[in-house]
Amino acid sequence: MTVCRQSRGAVAHDDSQLEWPGAGNEPQFRRALTNWFRKHQRNMPWRDQPSGYRVWVSEIMLQQTQVITVIDFFNRFISKFPTVAKLAAADEAEVLKLWEGLGYYRRARQLHAAAKQIVANHRGEFPESFEHVLALPGVGRYTAGAIMSIAFDRPFPILEGNTIRVYARLLGMKANAREKQSEQTLWAFSESLLPKGKGARDLNQGLMELGSEICRVRQPDCPKCPVRAWCRAFAEGIQEKLPVLTPRMEYQSRHDALAVVSRNDRYLLRQCGAGENWTGLWDFPRVTLGEPTAESRRVSLEDQVAARMKTEFGLKLAVEPSTKRLRHAVTKYRITLDCFRGRIEGRLPAGARDFAWVSSEELGSLPLNATGRKVANWVLAASSKK
After folding, report:
1. Contact between 15 and 4 (Cβ < 8 Å)
2. Which of 16, 77, 96, 234 stands the most exposed, by the fewest C-beta atoms within 10 Å?
3. How many Cα atoms sit within 13 Å of 321 on the Cβ side?
4. Considering 214, 241, 268, which residue would you say is the last residue of a domain?
5. What's the rounded Cα separation, in Å, for the pair 98 and 60?
């Protein structure tokens, strides 16, 4: 296969003529890869009874999340919502609670919205048309193709982290794999590998499995690769240099503060609103502190937190010294989170509809973000010792 593409910008390497060593031997390539996959594939619950619904749920969960993390979440989710109709009929809080700990909660809300769309437009039956699957909230070209090929064994190409790496190495692509023209080349190459009839299910899963287990980012295990005979990067000894990707995101530091406020054995929580990181989830009152200045350093951290709580939420709190510090990441931020005890002075401000006093039982059952859950567990453990 010769892949033609024009050079673009300041690309250091000319990939205008990518000669794949496997060109003309696609059937042999597919046979070697699928035979390897059938023998070495990992046991994953969504591979049992690969219905459209089960594959869809797994693909959404696997976005930006490792397989080993997803398995238990998938089993619990499918046990609670075995059908699209069950998921569509659920309360959003119930869906978010089952998603708690997976992160990127927008995926859960989109999954819930898509289930309602399937019930409304497809009588609760997961669609088997690529166009209908692509129209679902939270589904892009890769996810739609993965569902169509894995659930229904249809010949649709896939392009995600693992297969980008495999394809770039097979082709010996030295240009940035994230460039638009490079992505077009990789999509075309992926499509060229597909069988005309059945077999896309094992081929596509085999390609992803190969990228995960053999064709790794670092130290690819080329001696065990079933398709190394058709790999240009292996032939040239440059497999660890490919793919060429855009630089990693530079993370920003941020200092947050959270207040645990209790009254009469109840805890003050706030439900995050639209447009926030954790829309629909509950959290302890939380604020972001600004960059330290000469002026702010003259004010105690407790007073800074109290001032921010009043500005952000209208809460009048007496804040005690920090008792716990957590570190975590959200999108581009690396966050230091200091946890304080606070006492509310007076009543909740008028119009504070997103706040609620919750019992210990509710604190354990409401959907919280990951750090909120850690703090809740800490609070409940401390309470039980009294």
Report:
1. no
2. 16
3. 0
4. 241
5. 14
Q: Is 59 a catalytic residue?
A: yes
Please, which residues bridge with residue 2 across strands?
A: 19
CATH (domain of 345): 3.90.79.10
Q: Sign of the C-alpha dihedral, residues 117, 118, 120, 124?
A: negative
Alpha helices in the chain (DSSP H): 26-40, 52-62, 67-80, 84-89, 92-99, 106-122, 130-134, 141-152, 161-171, 180-192, 200-213, 232-236, 301-313, 360-365, 370-384
Nearest to 189 by CA among 230, 239, 129: 230
Q: Give the whole-angstrom CA distance, residue 71 versus residue 68.
A: 6
Which residue in 19, 26, 59, 128 is the catalytic one? 59
Q: Is 256 helix (H, G, I), strand (E, B) or coil?
A: strand
Residue 6: count other Cβ atoms within 10 Å of its Cβ.
Answer: 8
DSSP string, 130-168: HHHHHTSTT--HHHHHHHHHHHH-------SHHHHHHHH
Is residue 13, in this structure, part of any structural domain at all? yes
373 and 293 housed in the same domain: yes
Distance in angstroms (rounded) separating the CA atoms of residues 235 and 330? 40
Residue 29: C-alpha distances to residues 34, 63, 302, 307, 381 (Å) = 9, 28, 64, 65, 56
Final residue of a structural domain among 211, 241, 271 = 241
Q: What does each of the 386 residues of the chain score in pLDDT, given as a tens digit?
A: 555 433 333 334 556 568 899 999 999 999 999 999 999 999 999 998 899 999 999 999 999 899 999 999 999 999 999 999 999 999 999 999 999 999 999 999 999 999 999 999 999 999 999 999 999 999 999 999 999 999 999 999 999 999 999 999 999 999 999 999 999 999 999 999 999 989 999 999 999 999 999 999 999 999 999 999 999 999 999 999 999 998 777 889 999 999 999 999 999 999 999 988 899 999 999 999 987 776 767 789 999 999 999 999 999 999 998 889 999 888 889 999 999 999 998 888 877 789 999 999 999 999 999 999 999 999 999 877 76
